[in-house]
Amino acid sequence: MKTLWRIEQDAVDGICRLGIDDPSHAVNLLSVAALDELDTRLDEIESGLSTGLASGPHAHPITGLIIESRKAKGFIAGADVGEFDRLADPSEAERHIRRVHALLARIEDLPIPTLALIHDVCLGGGLELALACRYRIASDDPATKLGFPEVRLGIFPGYGGTWRAIRTLGPVAAMQAMLTGKTYSARQAQRMGLVDRVLPQRQLETGARDLIRAAPLPSRASFSQRLPNLTPVRGWVAQRMTRRTAAKVRQEHYPAPFALIEHWRANGDNSRGLLDGEARRVPELLLGETSTNLRRIFHLQERLKALSGAEVLRPQRVHVVGAGVMGGDIAAWCALNGLTVTLQDLSLDQIGSAMKRAHRLFEQRLRDPRLVRAAWDRLIPDPDGEGLPRTDLVIEAVAEQAELKQCLFAEIETRVPEHALLATNTSSIPLERIGEGLRDPGRLVGLHFFNPVARMQLVEVVQGTATRTESIQRGLAAVRALDRLPLPVRSSPGFLVNRVLMPYLLEAVDLLDEGVSIAAIDKAAVDYGMPMGPLALADTVGLDICLAVADTLGPTLTAPEETPERLHRMVADGRLGKKSGQGFYRYRDGQAVHESIPHGDRPPHDLTERMIFRLLNECVACLREGVVEDPDLLDAGVVFGTGFAPHRGGPLHEIAQGGWERMRERLDALQRDHGRHFRPDRGWQLTPAGLYRGGH
Amino acid sequence: MNQHTRPNTRPVYLVDGCRTPFLKARGVPGPFTAADLAVGAGRPLLLRQPFPPEAIDEVILGCVVPSSEEMNVARIAALRLGCSERTPAWTVQRNCASGLQALDSAAQSIGSGRADLVLAGGTEAMSHAPVLFGRAFVEWLGNWSRARSLTARGRLLAQLRPHDLAPVIGLLKGLTDPIVGLSMGQTAEHLAWRFGIDRPSMDRFALRSHQRLGTAISDHVFSAEITPLIAPDGTAYTQDEGYRADSDLAQLGALRPVFDRPTGTVTAGNSAQVTDGAALLLLASEEAVERWDLTVLAQLMDIQWAALDPTEMGLGPVHAMAPLLRRQGLATADIDVFEINEAFAAQVLACQEVWSDRHYREEVLGDEPDQAIPDDALNPEGGAIAIGHPVGASGARLALHLALSMKRRGLIRGVASLCIGGGQGGALLLRAEGGMP
């Protein structure tokens, strides 16, 4: 058996240090193996309390226990999510939870001071373990993050977290932390009362021993913080929490936060009720559809992260050409992530406004003025392209004109070092065309970022016919260096994300033309679980851009569609969406003025299906054509690129859940009712297995 | 010092340089600190070099009034520029010639073989000059922190007078000679009085400075010298802000004297402008030039320092240039360009006057008078009156501009010189690479 936990006792003061190093993961996880071994270690501690761990003349009673990580980075990042997938039924999950409850109770009941020493991440189960200790000390390192991310996986804390967080923080702060899944810095955690002391790394150990020796009373929520827990108040507070949660997410999509509030309302009186409630409620959620799908998305995310091998060189210097919205924001994002960036543009004012946005981004994300300045110093305005001779990566983000890009790359190629990777952010021009003027087109990849760069996690890494595999590998590595999720796609019109979004947007415009109200259309999509409706999305992207993409992409869709007249008209009238203040919506101070669904408006019964099925149909086409390699990558791309309802686990997963045959029949029916835009792709004729194998 | 021997050292080359636009101080702290300015000038300079920033052996910057947040601003700039953590950096202070002192120190390092590649120059954010508490108030604060009881504190509060709270503007304090008690402007008034330089000739000189700068700007002379700066608010600064295209004699004549009121002659119009700016140069040994295949702009032939009566600090350039030329066996006619810092029009005119004045040269300097410095050869592309004078940076700016203009115009020898508050002068002799000795 692997050894995860190691225990040592100090011969002088008798304090024990119990440290974890999980050799099978980059960060420590509270896996079953880790829990099993913790069990054994606790036996040793309990039996050695008065005699000490070592026998012999120097034996010393155990005077305190420090729980820590023996990895350089990370305390404990939570439970092993992969293990949840193997749980067969709720009773097995319940047994597991009750066992962890017992384990943590043993730590809590030790007659000696116990302390969790936290450096770097301390999340979920890791934080629940820390809360079972009498004290917590966190390092002031910016990497230190504490929180309960469980709700993002469709569950809530089940290792006694609901009880101990409420005991320590009071119900309002505790519920807020658990409902939002927010992570807190060490200082924030200290202000909330989650940790007792925040110290520089060099003082952690001394500080821990000092706190154990001083042995003050453990920190607990104050009287006023505990007030909302009183039965009559609790119901009222819970009701308010439910209302506020419902304003953000829908219960049928995301049951966990609602279940958590109800759990607290019903069981909040004491530890027994809360622990028991966890053991009964969490397994149900865990095996429910939402959590299963959210865990699927979590695994897909891990898969995208792992696409880039650690051995592939990551760029350190980036040269961005074009300081428009995309180029400027890409440059800023690169500098934020520690790369040295040179930003080239013909217009100094353009560079200036990009630098201004960059500075705002640095201030928002980094806060510490010294870090802001360092990021600012890494972003170098470079009107003459002096950064080219030493760059590792060039990202081109100039206007979408093939000749311009060709000329630019031909010139760039003569100035960059041999090893530099060339990348274009084009969304509509074939890579093969851009690479025409290059001596070595094999070094050209597409790195297709989405707007806004700082919020969109996905970057499509585009492989043209000439692109070398090694260049793709380096493209994937570059995206990881920027802390984004890379999706390898083949160079075909619209790649994956724009391609599947387009028919969905076009259908929304068709519906509008049929007289359905804007509000009804967007509401249908949001009700389905999309982050925003298609018309609001089009406004955000910009209707001029939508028009350009629709013109090039429309004819190539599996069920081709000409760009609706309305879109042409709106762009001609200067109604470009959010940026012009008027698109499908009107904007005041950058905020859409929402109109309610007109009274008596009876949207068609198949409104949602019409939009979603066109998206699903295009996904099938993309898979059949091999735009992405496999269905999981497709689901990952669509979820992280479009925000496609994460709780549904991805579009192809949605088709699989609905039943391949049944879904195809539904599409046939839509074609009968609404015509050729719903013509099923040829991929539907294959068996799912055949399609998934990549049959063409 | 022995005036007939040359120190036996390795040659020192000026290979490249870059400066920021000089930004007018507007009474509030400008958008850039001294370190920001140095980084702004240094980044594009280092970016275009064939060597990485880590290859630099030493960083030396002149700065007269470093802010309390940027002590040893050279080290801050070096680290922010991506020089190695193991690259030593230091800041030098020789008042108005701090930038020239940095070049001298760099040349010494290279000449003696201690370094091969030195980033040197100067930076000054005059608009960030500190505002200080007066001495009386500082003492009061000290007493306050010691006072324990309420009555003691009450008594102290009662002692406080409004005028104790009046701030001391650090910049004004710094521009006043502590020995003779004259402000720099008053030393210029003194020279004007002593040599009979009248207001119209000062104003004409000032106007000429603007006009020459204007011509140089329209000839795009500065595209090789100035790098744009971008502030966090997105504003791009591309040009020196002191230049006034619409300046004329009537306007200049209407300005009131600033230093000797009301009858003096030195005005804001015929004095150097208070500005923020930085100029950075790369100096290299022969080995470094060969190793990195660098293009040499000019060779740093010699530097001379001199000192004189603080009241006449404006004549410092004459005191420094005379022995410099003598040591090199050169005369006025051998020098193609003179860049003499325009602290005050009166002061430069006085320098020009005494340079060829037999009486002054013999009596004061104990040497022979030289031919007059021709107007055409003196600051041919404008000077600090139009461009501005960020005190710590000016010496480096003069050297950079001199080297670039000599190269552009195919000239061979040039001298850059400054007067120094406190009664000193410094002068530098450059020889264009490729020019005949």
Q: What's the number of extended β-strand segments of chain A?
A: 19
CATH topology of the largest domain in chain A: 2-enoyl-CoA Hydratase, Chain A, domain 1
* Mean pLDDT figure of chain B: 94
Mean pLDDT of chain A: 94
Number of helices of chain A: 29
Low-confidence stretches of chain B: 1-5
Large-scale geometry of chain A: globular
CATH topology of the domain at 184-220 and 300-431 in chain B: Peroxisomal Thiolase, Chain A, domain 1
Number of domains of chain A: 3
The chain pair with the largest interface is:
A-B, 24 and 18 residues
Fraction of residues in H or I helices of chain A:
40-55%
What does this structure look like?
The complex is a heterodimer of chains A (696) and B (437). Chain A is an alpha/beta fold and 696 residues long. Chain A folds into three domains: 5-287, 2-enoyl-CoA Hydratase, Chain A, domain 1, CATH 3.90.226.10; 317-487, Rossmann fold (3-Layer(aba) Sandwich); 492-696, N-(1-d-carboxylethyl)-l-norvaline Dehydrogenase, domain 2 (Orthogonal Bundle), CATH 1.10.1040.50. In chain A, the strands form four sheets. Chain A has an eight-stranded mixed β-sheet with strand order 12-11-10-13-14-15-16-17, sandwiched between helices. The longest helix of chain A is centred in the N-terminal third of the chain and has 20 residues, at 90-109. Among the domains of chain B are: 134-168, no CATH class; 184-220 and 300-431, Thiolase/Chalcone synthase (Peroxisomal Thiolase, Chain A, domain 1), CATH 3.40.47. Helix content of chain B is 37%, strand content 17%. In chain B, strands 1, 2, 3, 4, 5, 10, 11, 12, 13 and 14 form a ten-stranded mixed β-sheet that branches. Chain B has a two-stranded antiparallel ribbon with strand order 6-7. Chain B is globular, with a radius of gyration of 22 Å. The two termini of chain B are 24 Å apart. The model of chain B is unreliable at 1-5 (pLDDT under 50). The interface between A and B is medium-sized, with 24 and 18 residues.
